[in-house]
Design goal:
There is one protein chain. By secondary structure, the chain is mostly helical. Helices cover 74% and strands 0% of the residues. The N and C termini lie far apart (49 Å). The relative contact order is 0.13.
């Protein structure tokens, strides 16, 4: 009875807050019927996931659970096999991009064609790895302060060995993505059987936006740190867990969101005070980035100014994103087909499909994983000029875990695997054609 009362109070309070925020937004928003409808759909979908999540959350905190002390050892070589297979998959994607570029008219040789991988934000990360942040110079270089240093620092270390920053970046991304898949397997294996954990690895590797993990960008390292943090928390190793969490926050600003699942796990496991104090390590990663801002530009939050002025980026609401992206999609459908198919449609689908997936999977997932999804979705999808929803969703480990959970049926597994492959091939072609895939 007490649990039911708690569920009702939490649900009612959450819906009341979300409704009030949405109503306030509606009173000021100036979108068409199509844009407003998209905002309503996104809000209703998010609310539905939250409502299904509340009972799982309350039950998890009520029942509790001890820290896990040992891994499953029935597949002693599986981690090495996954690591090797993902590295080979990484190389295959690089080769596929080269082949597609040749098909689409490029005449570059293979090694010259590697420069193509700097076409997105990769170039900024490689500049930072080579020159660090600049305190004076052209504005295009000054605004690179918005890109966090975790990834460039490691690339710089590898470039000392390779002599080439781009090659170093590709190697770092490949190794980190392979390591992330291993950690995903180990994390899922704590709760599920081998087949389920392996499906999670499969769906991560077949993500339509998987090429972003291959590119010299921070997603692969961020995912590795995120999964390592949560795996170690599940094992009760709080100090190394929070150090990985801190490096995630030093690599991408959403790393701070790891506070949510870590605290959920600690409450569920009746943790001691020292474990809660360890959590304070996680924000230190982002604090170190703010210190770099101060040392370089004299302002610990200079990155926020650059984001707003140069990219029109600041925190907003995910339903506002749904509204403006839908309106842009409608306009570009008749005016600019590459923007429609390469930019706006993938962005909208990434958000709506992830919500729909979680609606089905939430009862099958740990409460901490769903809490992370909800917090991550609110923050990353709420950007005021979001162009990278597929990339951000790809770095959200909850999605492949949810896909693994809902594909226990073989037919469902085959169907979603086929859809992943087809959509991945289409999105890769759009990336190669530079149809505003960011």
């Amino acid at each position: 009875m007490k649990q039911k009362t708690s569920e009702i109070l939490i649900s009612a309070g959450g819906i009341a807050v979300l409704s009030a925020i949405f109503a306030l937004w509606c009173s000021k928003a100036e979108y068409s019927v199509v844009g407003t409808t998209a905002a309503v759909v996104a809000t209703v979908g998010f609310a539905a996931v939250c409502l299904r999540f509340v009972p799982v959350w309350v039950s998890a905190w009520r029942d509790g659970e001890p820290f896990l002390q040992a891994d499953d050892t029935r597949y002693p070589h599986i981690c090495a096999q996954i690591f090797t297979a993902v590295v080979l998959w990484d190389v295959l994607i690089i080769a596929a991009v080269y082949i597609l570029r040749r098909i689409f008219g490029s005449t570059d040789g293979f090694f010259d064609a590697l420069d193509f991988w700097t076409c997105t934000d990769s170039g900024h990360y490689l500049d930072i790895a080579r020159d660090w942040y600049l305190s004076e110079g052209s504005m295009d270089r000054l605004v690179q302060l918005v890109f966090l240093p975790g990834y460039p620092v490691i690339v710089r270390l590898f470039s000392a060995m390779t002599g080439d920053t781009l090659v170093a970046g590709l190697i770092v991304s490949a190794l980190c993505f392979a390591g992330a898949n291993v950690m995903l397997y180990k994390l899922v294996r704590l709760d599920a059987d081998h087949d389920t954990a392996f499906r999670a690895v499969k769906f991560l590797s077949l993500s339509p936006a998987v090429f972003f993990f291959v590119a010299p960008m921070s997603e692969s390292l961020f995912l590795l740190c995120t999964l390592s943090c949560l795996y170690l928390v599940r094992r009760g190793k709080m100090l190394p867990a929070c150090c990985f969490g801190a490096y995630a926050a030093f690599t991408r600003s959403p790393g701070i969101i790891l506070l949510v699942p870590v605290l959920f796990e600690l409450v569920q496991r009746r943790a001691k005070l020292k474990d809660y104090l360890s959590v304070l390590i996680i924000p230190l990663g982002f604090a170190a980035y703010c210190l770099i801002n101060y040392l370089v530009a004299g302002d610990a939050f200079k990155f926020m100014e650059y984001q707003n002025e140069h990219w029109n980026q600041q925190l907003g609401w995910f339903f506002n994103t749904a509204a403006y992206q839908t309106e842009n999609a409608v306009y570009s459908f008749s005016q600019n087909k590459p923007n429609f198919f390469g930019l706006w449609l993938p962005n909208i689908l990434a958000q709506l499909i992830s919500l729909a997936l979680m609606l089905f999977a939430v009862k099958m997932l740990r409460s901490s994983y769903t809490a992370y999804f909800l917090a991550y979705f609110v923050v990353t999808m709420g950007a005021t000029w979001l162009l990278s929803a597929p990339r951000y969703i790809a770095a959200l480990f909850t999605v492949p875990v949810a896909l693994a959970a809902v594909t226990q049926n073989r037919k469902a597994d085959i169907c979603i695997t086929a859809l992943s492959c087809l959509s991945g091939l289409a999105y890769l072609c759009e990336f190669v054609l530079r149809w505003q895939v960011w």
